[in-house]
Amino acid sequence: IPVEPFDLVVFGGTGDLATRKILPGLYRRFWAGQIPEGSRIIGAARSEMDDAAYRAMVHEAIAEFVAPDKCDKATLTAFLDSVSYVPIDARGTGGWQQLAGLMRDDVVRAFYFSVAPGLFGDLAQRLHSHAIADPDSRIVVEKPFGRDLDSARKLNATLAEHFDETQIYRIDHYLGKETVQNLMAVRFANILFEPLWNAQYVDHVQITVAETVGVGGRGSYYDKSGAMRDMVQNHMMQLLCLIAMEPPYRFEPDAVRDEKLKVIRALEPVGHDDIVRGQYRGGPRKSGDDELSYTEDVEDPHSLTESYIALKASIANWRWQGVPFYLRTGKKLRARTSEIAVVFKEPPHSIFDEDEAWRENVLAIRLQPNEGMNLSVMIKEPGPGGMRLTDVPLDMSFAEALGEDGADIPDAYERLIMDVIRGNQTLFMRGDEVEAAWAWTDPIIAAWEERGDRPKGYDPYSSGPEDALMLLHRDGRRWREIR
Ligand code: BG6
């Protein structure tokens, strides 16, 4: 379904995120027929260049990041015709009059702040003083949204000086992932799971976001953040919320966000013993070259920043009393795999022989790769050998189950940008949610900084530090394999 015609200004239009995700994503939506004629994309950044040079740059980005079968000449030309560029000085006056002159009254106006957070305030203020934004305009802001509660509050206050909360779209691209949205469909559109979705039947939950990439190239940003700020405070927190929240009364922005907020507010503080931080080591590669260690990647031999974190979180409410949520994420791990696993309890009484190995029912929701769901169930082993039990997976890959439609799952950014144009905030974080997430994160970070904790070393392409295994072993549980 096409969205309304729009003018989308991408501040930071020559940057990495714009060229890797935003512009190729917009092109794919254009190719799919979702962007109506008359819509315009206006890149804005500091570099002096004209429309033709910017179009050439966008063309290059599309060639690199969009599958060739979508890049036919006619579609490409039509898309590039809708693209233009304005050189702009975010902190000065240059370019703002020109941008104001381009704005049209009869289309949706959206402004994507794909720039350093330090510039959010300047952009917001200038959009107003030059009368570029109207009361229906939307702004899209990227993470990191602050680096602690104090800075997030200030950022919210700055944006609030010029924009109403209903105009502010705080992106967490995990919410745009197809499987993450599916999580809500699975929970709330089926009768099967919800009755079991509580402390009576769920033993624990594991949320894993493992990556194989290191931090090379982004070291200067990453070293100031670490896995807790980069992944846990936002992406993992959102996953946790969607798993743990109460059913919202409707699938509507504030109904959903109210429920997520309640989960964050119910999170218990996390003690020292319930966290393991890690940092990848270097090592020889098969090729004979050396694999750089984290400290070499960030060029600081003394860095204490974590590239891996595992922690045990608890939600102090009626539904989740006593159910641990184990979270782990890290760079340079064995495989790129993200999943949420809901591990159910044993049946209350076994009618089978004691020595029949019982294995728990697990509902695993795979975010990537090969998005899908897997439910492990116990069955009888085939054959005449008596009643022997074994577990088998009920496995579903969305791509296979949905045929062609499933094979072409849109990128998170595509979905989210279209939601901005539609004016739907359901998959965007509200200001109070972000603040609550920092309020939980801050004391955890402050405690390890105060103690001067060193992260544990782990080998590149392993499952992370040994100590992380203990986090579950001591509770009589084990992590699912990263593969
Ligand atoms: C980003 C983090 O927000 O998410 C990166 O800053 C991380 O460090 C990335 O690599 C992971 O996203 P995805 O979609 O590749 O899982």
UniProtKB/TrEMBL annotation:
- UniProt catalytic activity: D-glucose 6-phosphate + NADP(+) = 6-phospho-D-glucono-1,5-lactone + NADPH + H(+)
Can you tell me which residues bind NADP(+)? Answer: 46, 143
Write down the EC number. Answer: 1.1.1.49
Glucose-6-phosphate dehydrogenase NAD-binding domain location: 9-182
Highest taxon of the source? Bacteria
Q: Where is the active site?
A: 235
Which pathway does it serve?
Carbohydrate degradation; pentose phosphate pathway; D-ribulose 5-phosphate from D-glucose 6-phosphate (oxidative stage): step 1/3
Q: Where are the transmembrane segments?
A: none
Q: Which family does it belong to?
A: Belongs to the glucose-6-phosphate dehydrogenase family.
Q: Which NCBIfam families does the UniProt record give?
A: zwf (TIGR00871)
This one is known as: Glucose-6-phosphate 1-dehydrogenase
Species of origin reads Acidimangrovimonas pyrenivorans
